[in-house]
What we know:
This protein is of the alpha+beta class. The chain has helices spanning 35-50, 64-74, 94-102, 106-109; strands at 7-8, 13-14, 24-28, 55-59, 83-86, 89-93. The strands form two sheets. It has a four-stranded mixed β-sheet with strand order 4-3-5-6, sandwiched between helices.
Amino acid sequence: AWxxxxxxxxxxxxxxxxxxxxxxxxxxxSVTGSRQVKQKQAEVTRILDINKTKYELIDVSIxxxxxxxxRAKAGNPNAVPPQIFNGDDYCGDFExxxxxxxxxxxxxxxxxxxxxxxxxxxxTV
Length: 125
């Protein structure tokens, strides 16, 4: 469901081609000593997988440029992974996604049209 994004050079050019607008992007880190960060990152991808959401993982440990880009887009100079975006639109962090999941508002959180939401059968007893 995901494709890693790599960069080359200080210009931040992606080797795998341009990202499409409207793509869910999860900024994460593959290098962390924090078990809490690892757990949050795993939970984000689990929630997206359960909701059959296509997403791309962007590893901020590859380049300081990617970390700064994530923080600038999130509007928080101290933001830490995981951070979730729809294209370049900031959706939120792990806690915000978790809250949206609890309220059954994942699609709203991800800023995805309800038409994209998988059909859900209602069973009346």
